[in-house]
Amino acid sequence: MQDKEEERSLVNVERQLNKDGFTADFRVTDGRLHTIDNDRSKGYTPNEVTIVDFYRFEGESNPDDMSILYVIETADGVKGTISSAYGTYADADVDEFLKTVEDLGKNLTKPKHK
Hints:
This is Phosphoribosylpyrophosphate synthetase. It comes from Hymenobacter swuensis DY53. The chain is α+β, with helices and mostly antiparallel strands. It has one domain. 27% of the residues lie in helices and 30% in strands. A five-stranded mixed β-sheet has the order 2-1-5-4-3, with helices on both faces. The longest helix has 17 residues, at 92-108. The relative contact order is 0.18.
């Protein structure tokens, strides 16, 4: 039986996600989401992206060593991940892009008013 911490290690989570088809590595540049291999040159806007899931990881020895791994699917079916640190080490571009994606997702579930 695996240790609980071992199950939640970044490497093991990424391995399982890869098996599930989430193989692309994403980055944010100029307000758009791009795959690392840049097979779609213009990138994706926040309304073309869905956050499927996320995992938080804490550093063993340093509380500042925390990160979050987002599991993402794009409108045209590309599935992959992007990570961001918490706090001081956070990537502002990634955080801003993903916050916009989250806000758009929340709007989809709100009732429409006539």
